TrEMBL record, chain A:
Stretch forming the signal peptide: none
Pfam families in alphabetical order: GIDA, SAM_GIDA_C
PROSITE patterns, A to Z: GIDA_1, GIDA_2
InterPro entries for the chain: FAD/NAD-bd_sf (IPR036188), MnmG (IPR004416), MnmG-rel (IPR002218), MnmG-rel_CS (IPR020595), MnmG_C (IPR026904), MnmG_C_subdom (IPR047001), MnmG_C_subdom_sf (IPR044920), MnmG_N (IPR040131)
NCBIfam families referenced in this protein's UniProt entry, alphabetically: mnmG_gidA
Cofactor (UniProt): FAD
Record PANTHER family: GLUCOSE INHIBITED DIVISION PROTEIN A, PROTEIN MTO1 HOMOLOG, MITOCHONDRIAL
Record domain tRNA uridine 5-carboxymethylaminomethyl modification enzyme C-terminal subdomain: where: 568-640
Annotated keywords: FAD, Flavoprotein
Native source organism of the sequence: Cloeon dipterum
Name of the molecule in the record: tRNA uridine 5-carboxymethylaminomethyl modification enzyme C-terminal subdomain domain-containing protein
From TrEMBL, chain B:
Entry's Gene Ontology molecular function annotations: GTP binding
GO annotation, biological process: tRNA methylation; tRNA wobble uridine modification
Entry's Gene Ontology cellular component terms: mitochondrion
Protein name (Swiss-Prot/TrEMBL): TrmE-type G domain-containing protein
Organism annotation: Cloeon dipterum
Length: 655, 366
């Protein structure tokens, strides 16, 4: 077993490559201990699989490389879904947040963005505690992975460490984030690194290239860190946290911190001085000169200025921890040489005397075209090999975590010889994420937005548990405790809805009860549907107090009262979307057989279409229709052919 | 040589429409342009051909595309507001400016659709029903009109107790003349049915030729006489919407002077008044079908109308949602549906296209 040999590795560095640990094959090996890796190994371990996490440094497990925050609009949705599957990041954020705030409150529950500033140290501490001490079936070693073991039959059978040691495993999940051929850029200076202070993964990058995976290069960046004490907050806008803070996890009723102990965040703006410095120094800023033709959005302050100059840009001053002396200036991602960074920062309001603790820098890294993956995140070329996280071209901890949990689950399910676990676009944001990636690929770091979800009304953060927990339980990744919480929640919701539906009054009676102007409609309305009335904005709490006789029986179910209002508000629209979803499900059922011959003359597909379809290998007509460059008429012809041949088997998530 | 080519496997002789299909499949024409071509191939009359040609060159497509552009832009602004306004700063007034643009768009769409179905009429032919009491000369009128030179005439067999239709070109407009059973109190079941159908045809027609016998007109003011005639016939249509044909003018001694514009004195026997009738007919047809000039492409298919109407409905719903203070996501759903239906005319708008717009207009951070 690996653990026994750990001391041997140190003592005998020159182990021959022929030495292999034949005994004790792991079920799942996860390479990389970032946000994707931790979710992956935790999920596989939860499913009872013998799991190994391989990381360069144990101490960086749970490291938040960039922003000291989790969540937001779209990202918060992903977190709730990961939590619904008993994932880790939501619960750990509930133990380490210092400023909890739900974004988009006024835009309606469908797009609420649960978010929190996180104390980096606390996050790491709690995450490592969970992973090291409370996760049975999981082993962790510090090592660099140099290569993969591939069997003659093409299946991945393990990894090869830098020291030559072989580790056998039935499946491997690679979650190396920004480390593949990672390079750091500051000004014109380029250094190989996955993150400042951490070695990149070169060997593994070479392996993937050798295996002929389609690769690309992406850039991202991070801002400098500034000493708190050198900032003048008096000129900045103070923003307070939510009172009370809402937990991320469905199984927590509150977060660790006392509401009043939460720290504020401050907002400030750039001045024209910043513009000047950026424009005058493009010649020493390699990263940005190449970057501005890259992503559509503005990753760095430089690109913001170059694309949308002559205006003040927002900079959020985010605390890195309760007792940290560092501030993270969000929006000030910067790749100028260090001395120029300081000059630039001092042009921002409130930062006139700022002192840099660490400079900002750009990161360039290899990623694998996610169209190389099945929706289960297994690679099409190498069975048994799964990829998750930024290696697939995404950006953000949440996007990584979402992929990690799915990859970990599916690696485990493969070992158990069970069907893969796939979330559809109609079921969750995780589904939207993975479907977008595996169908369209990406040429910029993919970020989740609610506008990507067609069924935004139905896929809400508040109902992630109802959408996904049971499905996760059936797959084996959700604990009994969480399942019980879900059952309790569901039965409370059903009971309350029943009671509220049975209480009917005429509209004018409702209006007078709530002391609102009269209405002219006459049809009786139930208390439940009243909750959706935006002119009254009733809460269950109010109803309970106004109608004690009828609603006393609701006492004890207070935990779901807020959710009832949301359910009522969206019930009608959910029904509408359900109809659309059903229609799509039908389309999805049209399976395109594996190794389909797109060159068939009767399909009359253009060269471009044939190439794209053959590369993506969409499994269903619905997936084919989403590939850019494939015309609707081509899809029509495919559909006609497929229908004629009667391919109506249930959809498989892998070939 | 054709037969030799035909021997090559997978090589089929072109079916009618194959070239069109291929052009569509090759993405060289969008949906509305292809419809135009189909119309061209079957266009029977000059005006139809003009409109079909217009559509083929994409004028209708161009109009719809402009609308789609506006709608997508508005959607992009709403989506930007939903996804980014709390982290990055999206300018104030984004939603207000969207509202304004949508109002203008809705107005444009409405006025385009209130063209009284002109294009559709043009495509399938103006329905002209010839109605009146028995023996006033309806069938004679039909024959007279149909016999004019330069008329393309096809006829369908029927009985005079039923409807007789004749398709013809009248001054470049496609017309379906419909002869009907004489209107009176009938006892015969078959005749009753014929009369019932005649009345239905009159109600459904785009234009009604009300034929009366000039000699049999009572000696009362014309207006009153005609209203009574309508009553006797059991018709509940507006006199002003008809063209009144006072037939058998050869049998009355004096000419009736001072006839209103839509009342014509004719004699199928002598041919008197027929030219005048035709010119009045043509004027009516022109206003019914519109002149498909470049400035105002007309809607040719009920399909277009349905999608446009639905799109407009959703635009109004968006308005209502905001006014009722429903949350923005629900309102945005209405916009999505509006765009979806407009997209049925010119092609779907993808999420990526939407995001392209969002990022090009707003400065969004990482």
């Amino acid at each position: 077993m690996i653990l026994r040999r750990r001391s041997l590795i140190r003592v005998l560095p020159a182990l021959s490559r022929q030495f292999s640990c034949a005994e004790g094959t792991y079920d799942v090996v996860v390479v990389g201990g970032g946000h994707a890796g931790t979710e992956a190994c935790a999920a596989a371990a939860r499913m009872g699989r013998k799991t190994l996490l391989v990381t360069h440094k144990k101490s960086t497990i749970g490291e938040m490389s960039c922003n000291p925050s989790f969540g937001g609009v779209g990202k918060g949705h992903l977190m709730k879904e990961v939590d619904a599957l008993d994932g880790v990041c939501g619960r750990i954020c509930d133990l380490s947040g210092i400023h909890y705030k739900v974004l988009n409150v006024r835009k309606g529950p469908a797009v609420w963005g649960p978010r929190a500033q996180i104390d980096r140290k606390l996050y790491k501490k709690h995450l490592q505690n969970e992973i090291f001490n409370h996760t049975p079936n999981l082993e962790i070693i510090e090592a660099a992975v140099e290569d993969l073991m591939i069997h003659e039959n093409g299946h991945c059978t393990g990894i090869v460490l830098e020291n030559g040691e072989y580790v056998s495993s039935k499946t491997v999940v690679i979650t190396t984030g920004t480390f593949l051929n990672g390079q750091i850029n500051i000004g014109l200076d380029v250094r190989p690194a996955g993150r400042v202070g951490d070695e990149p993964s070169i060997g593994l990058a070479k392996t993937l290239e050798r295996l002929k995976f389609r690769m690309g290069v992406l850039k991202t960046g991070t801002p400098p860190r500034i000493y708190r004490s050198s900032i003048d907050f008096s000129d900045c806008e103070k923003h307070l946290a939510d009172m009370p803070p809402l937990p991320f996890s469905f199984i927590n009723s509150q977060v660790w911190i006392k509401p009043e102990d939460q720290v504020p965040c401050h907002l400030t703006y750039t001045t024209p001085g910043v513009d000047k410095i950026v424009k005058e120094n493009l010649h020493v800023n390699r990263h940005v000169s190449e970057e501005i033709t890259g992503p559509r959005y503005c990753p760095s302050i430089e690109s913001k200025i170059l694309r949308f100059g002559n205006r003040a840009h927002q900079i959020w001053l985010e605390p890195e921890g309760l007792d940290s002396d560092l501030i993270y200036p969000a929006g000030l991602s910067c790749t100028l040489p260090e001395d120029l960074q300081l000059q630039l920062i001092r042009q921002v309001k409130g930062l006139e005397n700022a002192v840099l603790a660490k400079p900002g820098y750009g990161v360039q890294y290899d990623f694998v075209d996610p169209r190389e993956l099945w929706p289960s995140l297994e690679t099409k070329k190498i069975p048994g090999l799964f990829l998750a996280g930024q290696i697939n071209g995404t950006t953000g901890y949440e996007e990584a975590a979402a992929q990690g949990i799915i990859a970990g689950m599916n690696a485990a399910l493969q070992v158990l010889e069970r069907e893969p676990f796939v979330i559809r676009r109609t079921e969750g944001y995780i589904g939207v994420l993975i479907d977008d990636l595996t169908t369209h690929g990406t040429n910029e770091p993919y970020r989740m937005f609610t506008s990507r979800a067609e069924f935004r009304v139905y896929l809400r953060p508040d109902n992630a548990d109802i959408r996904l927990t049971k499905k996760g339980f059936d797959a084996g990744v959700v604990s009994n405790e969480r399942m019980q919480v879900l059952q309790q929640t569901q039965s409370s919701l059903e009971y309350c809805e029943e009671v509220l539906q049975s209480v009917m009054l005429a509209p004018r009676k409702w209006k007078s009860l709530f002391k609102k102007p009269n209405s002219t409609s006459t049809a009786s309305k139930s208390a439940f549907s009243l909750l959706a009335d935006s002119s009254i904005k009733a809460t269950v709490f109010q109803l309970r107090n106004l109608m004690p006789d009828e609603l006393r029986c609701l006492d004890g179910t207070e935990a779901v009262w807020d959710r009832l209002v949301i359910c009522s508000t969206y019930k009608y629209y959910e029904k509408m979307q359900t109809a659309e979803i059903e229609a799509i499900k039908k389309e999805q059922e049209l399976v395109i057989p594996k190794n389909f011959d797109y060159n068939m003359p009767r399909l009359s597909l253009s060269m471009e279409e044939r190439e794209k379809l053959a590369f993506s290998q969409p499994q269903t007509i619905a997936a084919a229709s989403r590939i850019p460059g494939v015309t609707p008429s081509a899809v029509l012809r495919l559909m006609v052919y497929v229908k004629q041949k009667g391919h109506k088997a249930p959809v498989a998530a892998r070939g | 040589m054709l037969s030799a080519v035909g021997q090559i496997p997978d090589c089929f002789p072109a079916q009618p429409g194959d070239f069109t299909k291929r052009a569509f499949y090759a993405g060289k024409m969008d949906l509305t342009a292809v419809e135009g071509l189909a119309d061209l191939l079957s266009a029977e009359t000059e005006a139809q051909r003009k409109q079909a040609l217009l559509q083929m060159e994409g004028h209708l497509g161009k109009l719809y595309n402009e609308w789609a552009q506006t709608l997508v832009k508005c959607m992009a602004h709403v989506e930007a507001y939903i996804d980014f306004s709390e982290d990055d700063n999206i300018e104030d007034g984004v939603l207000e400016s969207v509202e304004k643009k949508l109002k203008v768009l809705a107005e444009e769409m409405k006025s385009h659709m209130s063209d009284e179905r002109r294009g559709e009429i043009l495509r399938s032919g103006v329905q002209v029903s010839i109605v009146g009491e028995p023996n006033v000369g309806k069938s004679s009128l039909l024959n007279t009109l149909a016999q004019r030179p330069a008329a393309i005439v096809t006829s369908q067999a029927g009985t005079t107790r039923d409807l007789v239709r004749v398709s013809m070109d009248l001054g470049g407009f496609p017309v379906q003349l419909c002869d009907t059973a004489g209107l009176r109190e009938a006892s015969d079941e078959v005749e009753k049915e014929g009369i019932h159908r005649a009345k239905a045809a009159a109600a459904k027609a785009d234009l009604v030729l009300l034929v009366a016998s000039a000699p049999l007109l009572p000696k009362v003011p014309l207006e009153q006489a005609l209203q009574n005639y309508l009553k006797t016939c059991g018709l509940s249509i507006n006199l002003k919407d008809c063209i009144v044909v006072l037939n058998k003018s050869d049998l009355i001694p004096d000419k009736i002077q001072e006839l209103p514009e839509n009342v014509i004195l004719t004699s199928c026997e002598s041919g008197e008044g027929i030219s005048q009738l035709l010119s009045v007919l043509q004027n009516r047809l022109t206003s019914l079908c519109g002149d498909p000039s470049r400035e105002c492409p007309t809607i040719t298919q009920a399909r277009h109308r349905t999608y446009l109407e639905t799109c407009l409905e959703y635009l109004h719903e968006y308005q209502r949602s905001l006014e009722a203070e429903q949350d923005l996501v629900i309102a945005a759903e209405q916009l999505r549906q509006a765009l979806r239906h407009l997209g049925m005319l010119t092609g779907k708008v993808s999420t990526e296209q939407l995001l392209d717009l969002v990022f090009s207009e707003f400065c969004i951070g990482k």
